[in-house]
Design a protein that fits this description.
Blueprint lengths: L1 H17 L3 H22 L11 H34 L4 H12 L7 H21 L6 H44 L1
């Protein structure tokens, strides 16, 4: 690369001595080439990623992408239901914090079906019926069920924290065991 650079400088100097008008064309071409190289380095980073060509790796990548899509759909489905409840009924500040933590930590993994197919749709139905009755006689029922729902979400968050801590402790024990085996 260094030899090519110095060769280009040498040839440009010779051309400049012989024909000075050619320097303008060399300047324009070198500027275009330089801008292209800068653009390629900054915006085409995708080509530089490591991608093994084995079929096993490709299969694992497909599985990983499918899992991400499924998780994303789950998140959007639950998020839409919770946002609908927030829009139609509203949460207290404490409930809103719990719900936000619940969504942020995606603590619904173990009870996704129960939340998405039963608890949240029933809560939405209850809210819609209460709104149709113009909140006469049902406001307490909806509020109490919403409190129960958020307390269930809070328990799921705590459960997820416990499980992640247990998984971390198990990982440390396995790591320590492997280190002992290597000695």
């Amino acid at each position: 690369m260094n030899i090519l650079f110095f060769l280009a400088i040498f040839l440009t100097s010779i051309i400049g001595l012989i024909e000075q008008r050619a320097l303008l064309w060399i300047l324009t071409l070198s500027l275009i080439a330089m801008l292209y190289m800068v653009w390629e380095k900054t915006f085409k980073k995708e080509k530089q990623k490591f991608k093994p060509k084995s079929n096993d790796f490709k299969e694992l990548e497909k599985i990983k992408k499918n899992r991400i899509k499924i998780e994303d759909k789950k998140y959007h489905y639950i998020n839409d239901q919770i946002d609908y409840i927030r829009e139609k009924w509203g949460y207290t500040k404490v409930q809103d914090k719990i719900v936000s933590d619940f969504l942020e930590k995606r603590a619904y993994d173990t009870m996704y079906n129960k939340f998405s197919a039963s608890l949240l749709p029933n809560m939405i139905l209850l809210i819609e019926n209460c709104i149709l009755q113009e909140k006469k006689g049902c406001k307490y029922e909806v509020s109490s069920r919403l409190r129960e729902l958020t307390s269930l979400m809070k328990e799921e968050i705590k459960k997820q924290k416990r499980e992640s801590k247990e998984n971390f402790e198990i990982s440390i024990e396995v790591y320590d065991y492997l280190l002992e085996e290597l000695k």
